[in-house]
Each structure stands twice: as structure tokens, then as C-alpha cells.
Amino acid sequence: MAPGTRIGSYEVVGPLGAGGMGEVYRARDIKLKREIALKVLPEAFASDPERMARFQREAEVLAALNHPNIAQIYGVEERALVMELVEGETLKGPLPLETALNYARQIAAALEAAQTKGIVHRDLKPANVKVTPEGVVKVLDFGLAQLSRDREGVESDPSNSPTFTMSATRAGMILGTAAYMSPEQARGKPVDKRADIWAFGVVLYEMLTGQRLFKGETITDVLAAVVKEEPDLTRVPHKVRRLLESCLQKDPAKRLQAIGDYRWLLEETPQAGSLRHHGLPWKIVAAVFGIAAIMLGAAYFRRPTEQPRVVKLSLLPPENTIFENDFPALSPDGRHLAFAATTGQERKLWVRDLDSLAARPLPGTEGVDDPFWSPDGRFMGFFAVGKLKTVDVTSGAVMTLCDAEQALGGAWSQRGTILFAPNRRGALLSVHSTGGAVTPATALDQASGEVSHRFPWFLPDGRHFLYQSGTANFEKATIYLADLDSKNRHAVIDAHSNVVYTPPGYLLFVRDRTLMAQPFDASQGKTTGDSVPVADQIGIRPNQFRGRFTASQNGVLVYAADVGRPYVQLTWFDRSGNVAGKVGSPAFQSDPAISPDGNTVAVDRFDPQTLLPDLWLYDLRRGTMTRFTFNSRANLLPAWSPDGSHVAFTSAKAGSGYVYQKAISGAASEEALDKTEGINKVVDDWSQDGRYIIEQVADPKTRQHIWVLPLFGDRKPFPYLQTEFNERAGRLSPNWQWLAYVSDETKRNEIYVQTFPIPGSKWQISTNGGSIPIWSRDGKELFYIGADQKLMAVEVVGGNKFKAGIPKPLFETHLGNGREIWFDVSKDGRFLMPIPVENAGPLPMTVVVNWTAGLKK
After folding, report:
1. Is the pTM of this model over 0.70?
2. Angle made by CA atoms 652, 653, 654, in degrees to the nearest 5
């Protein structure tokens, strides 16, 4: 097809290649403004039932798969598959050993995801594998894939083999495909996932040596070699020979049975089978090891008994990063620690091997929250951008499982079941670790006032689990023990905290910022003694009372102090970045908002002990401060009414984020403006005509969006921007005709402006990333924080026709490593910013080895 040809909403840019199942073109998605790949079945094949069936099969197979190492399908048009455009090179060898193993792990992850769905690729070869410039492997071309349950009948037909059906004029393609066939596939016999395991071994050999494993001048010669010749593995490194030997067994029954088991065959420890090759019969070897064990044991017990010692270590964040106020996660064996860390404005999941001096980031985990490990330590679950995801710690492959709006914890059982709390209100849900249907795992007891179940943690049996039950009464929370099979539960302790079970039998939880340990019998499901303190000043996440601690199954404990709300000083700056004064003294505070007359500043101030915020007012003329809101929950994010008589804010005193207002005079209590059930609202701005409040909404089915709360008529809030992207931090121009906001529609946060109150024309303001848009009081400038933490200024014309100039940097803000802390601008053009106090940086995490030994003192 010629460039410019249209298929649906897709415009052909140029050819990418052709194969037996069709032609592939680079194309542009006109609607979503992105490049895609179009796989088009030629018209001459449209009348071929077999080719059409395979074409349809590929669409169905790809639709069933959602894995980072498999090229995605976006849709189907007439005779065309709309697919992910994979930039990069086709897989080629020879490659360095570690590079080849890295690629092999990613291929194995893709095959494992397909096989979990019962899908066999049947045509794995280097030509169907691409490597992106970032080193990510993508497995392509599932046109010959087949569901394993359909093996009878059609699978036994030799015409279904790619060797026999592809055009005879494409001899190279035929030979290449035949060279990767399993012996049973070459014979035209039924195949299952073990055929892909054979092909995996052949591909790995070629990656390591750069040579085909099975060769021949004709198709017959190649197939004969596959069926009869024993592969020569002398050219491959010793480390991978056991793996290749297991993958390349002619008999499928003797072959590696599950692709995920490749990991065990790469271990360096000699196996019993390898000892047998050295001339020692297995029984003799076992006897020798038994005698040695007895002798070593006798020698050990003759030594004086030494009590295990408690060892404490400090663990700093990686260089040029900070620890987020997130929850660390120890692998079950205590060898690996996962945590969130931020560089600039990018937050990723990092893993630190505790026997190593360095940590490594995991690509594809941007925006991570709440990491948790699989029981075998091979994978991690985490939440990001409204989704529950998993990541293979070795290969880095990320898989999206389901939606999770504002998650409050996840747990992974030995059965492969993942429990998670998808938002702040509701029961726990369950999903398999490989994806599938999401089902309820618990049910709220509404009669007792339950509003949420959160923070699940599995016991070692993989069946019973702990979780916290919360009610509308913030001070009342209970830890329950529940059963996946029976759905029964019973109360264990009263604690407003997450809970962790760790052998030999303790529950860890936080009470009054102190980490407590209470003896617990897991088999009986009940406590067996009083709780005792383990460590004090444990960090907790604001509004959740969730402790920042984790423990392994073998005596390793990690906990952290708070880092999300450092002491800050409200500081005035002029346009050159010179300090022009200070407001009040340093405190746990943020989000300053200057009153319309410029005489008062409303700010969030956090209690250092509870980390719960309330609103305070600074009187700039008198130099005094007074507390403005009072309750046991969170009040934050103030926005002034245009006449300065009221402040609107977000409060969680009713259990969710609702919008309230309160008069500055204090003559009346808070008045609820928006208590929409089941939707958390955050106040962003109040229009200068007094008619609208701009809200930021977390939608459980999508992400963050901008809504509008009208303060007239029926006062029913409505969505202003609600797309597949995040839209947030909305700020209205002084003439309330234009709304500035942040969106990640380009996969990077940028500042945009649209018409208001009805979105229409749109302008991108920032050019290299941006956040926190603020208008000047006269509406002639728009300020924001650039990706490099500099304050940017853009001249704007905001009359009936909007026009923006070129962004210009003013000065370095020093807001603190990319934290989105709001600033404000006064009528005279000064900037009020919350600047972290010098030397009040993040505290390290504390690692404690043999922590239970300290309980005996």
C-alpha cells in the first residue's frame, strides 16, 4: 500500500516487511496521534479460509495476552491487525553471555505468560523476536499460535506446520522456520508448550554462538537433523549447558516441562545428576554427605553455645535519590529489599540486595506505590497509575493485572492469589498473579459500620491472611484473620495499623508511632501473650496510620522514619530568586495560599507525631498564627473565596476526601460543599467570580481527572477533563475563562491551557516537562515548575483570544527533589514557597538482623 493510504483511522507511512501471513506497514493513528504497526492480509488471501482463520486466531491470541515482552494488539480493521509498533533490531547472535541470558529471560517470561493462558506460539525464532533500543525484548507473530486445548485434530494435520504451509518461493523463511521446530512438530504430531521450550533452546544456542543449531541444504535435510541428530553443545558456555540439554531433549516427556523452571537450571550449585557423571554412585554420595553432616553436627554442638546477636545497620537512599514516604518490602528470604525512590520528578521501584553495596532501579515501574513480593522472591507486585502490576525482578518484565485506583496494600500467596485493596473504601479483592477475573475476597459488615478492608498479609500456609478493618469512626480499627476457602474470619487485635506476621510467631504493628511485637500462634490464629515495643518513631503515611516497616520470614526487620513531610520554611522570593522575607518558623507544613487582599496565608500544618494536617492562618500584618480547623482527621489544600471571607479545603473527617468550606470569622463550623459518595475529591482552586470550585478526582475505573463543582443551581459536580490520561492541578485564570492544568498525555507531565467552563481549544504551555501551574494576579503571566526544578514564567494574552509566549526560567526553586508542593504568588509579584530546612533531609532506613533476639532482654 502506498504512503497515505487509509484503513479506518490509520494512515500508512511506509512498509516494514512482509511474511507468509501478510504485509506489515508503519502507520499513524490519526485519533490518538501515535505510530502503530498495521499487519494487512493481502486481498489475494482473503478467499483462503485457512489464512483467514489464522489471521483471526492471531487477533484473538494477542487480545488474550497483556505482557511487556509481547507486542500488543490495539484493534482489528478489515483484513488488518492494529498492533504496537516495536522499534529495534531483530534478535541476532553471537551475544555476550549475560546479554544473551537477559534476552532469554525476557523471552521465557513472554512464553510463560502465553502458556499460562494455554497458548503455544509454535513459531518461535529469532526473526520473530525484536530488541528495542532500551534492551526490552518483544516476541512477535502469533499467527501460528494455538490454544493447547485444541491439540486434537487440527494440530495433527501436517499442513498446520509452518514448514509445510508457507510459500515454497520463500525458501529461506521455510528453512529458518524448520530449523527451530521441535521433533514432534517436524513429524506433524500434536504439540504443546514443550514445542516452544525446544524452540527456546534453539534460539538461545543461536544467541550464544551466532550459528544455526540444525542445518541442511534442503528442507528435508533440516527436518532430518532436527529429528535424528543430537545437538553439539560444546560451543556454548558451561553455565547454560544443563539448561540447553533439558530444553533439547528429543522426547517431550524428558524435556523441560515448564519454561519458568529454566531458572533452576542456571544455578551454579552442582546437582545430584552432575555428581553421578563423576563416577560416584548416588547412594555412595548420599552416604558420604550423611556421615559428613553427622561429624560436622557433633563438632558444632561441642562448641560453647553462642546466643544470636542483634545487628543494626543504616541504609541510605541511592545516590541522587530520596526515599519516598512509601513502604519498604523485604523478600521472604530476607536477601532483597524493595523500596520507592525518586530522582527529580521520577519515582521508580528499586531493589537492594542486602549483601551488595548498590541498589538497582526496575524500569517500567514509574509512579510505583506499595510494593510486595511473591513467595519465591522472583516477582514483585506493585501499584502505579491506577493499576495493579507485577514485575519480574530478574528480567524486568512488567505485567498489568487490573485496575486499582488508590490502593492500600497487596499480598501474594503461595497459591498464586493476590489480595489487594483497590481503594480507600471497600472490601479486599482477589486476582491471580498471571491475570484474569477480579473477584471479592472479603465482604464489609455494614451493620457494624465497616467501610474498608486494607493492608492484607498472608500467613505461611498461603490460605489464611490478616487485614485491617476500618469504620467511619476513625479511632476504631481491628485486625482480622480470614480464610480464602471458607470466608470465615475472627478478630485478632485492635490496632489502627498494618500488620505483618513473621516466624517464629509474632505480629508486628504500630501503636503511637512505636513498632510493637505480639506473640501469635499461626496454627490457632490467636495471640499468646502481651505486645512489647521493638522500635520507636516509626514512620507512618499521613491519613492512613500505616507503618513504614517490613519483615522477612527469617529474622530480618526494616523500618523507616517519615520523609514525605520535612520541616519547611515559608519563604518569599523575588523574580531573581533572592530571598525577600520569611513567614513564621519552620514546621511540617505545605501548600500555602495567599488571601485575595494579600494579608493572610492559609497553610497545611502537620502534627509531627500523627502526621495529620490541619489548616492554620498566618496574619502577615501582625505576625501571628492561629489554628483554623480542628478534628481528628486530615484537613488540607486550602483555596480562598474571591472575597476572602471563606476557605475551601479537602477533609477526610467523614472517611473520604470531601470538599468543605469555613468562614474566616470562625462564626460557623465547616460546611460540606461536595460529599459525593465513593469519590475522593481534592480542592484545586476557586474561581474569581465565586461560581466554581475546581476539583481533582481519583476515578476508580481510570485515573486522576479534573471536575467542576458549581456553587449555584443544584450544585451537582461534573467532569471537566476525564480522559485515558492523568489530568490534575487545575488553576483558573483571574478572568476565569482559561484553565491551566497538568497532563501526562505525552507520557511526561506538561502544562496545558483550555477554555473554561467548556473545554475546547487547547494550548501546550511547557516545552520540557512541568508541574504546579499558578497564574499571576493580573492574569498576564503563567508560572510553573519545570522538570529541572526551575520556576518558569510564560507571558500570556488572556482576553477573548488566548496566546502564550515562550517559557523563560526565573530561578532554581529548591522545593526539594521534585516534590509537588504548591507555591503561590502575591499581587506585587513575589513568590511564597515552602523550602525544606537545611540539613533536614531524608533519614535512612534501619535494617535489623536477628531482631527477635532483642525481645529477650
Report:
1. no
2. 90
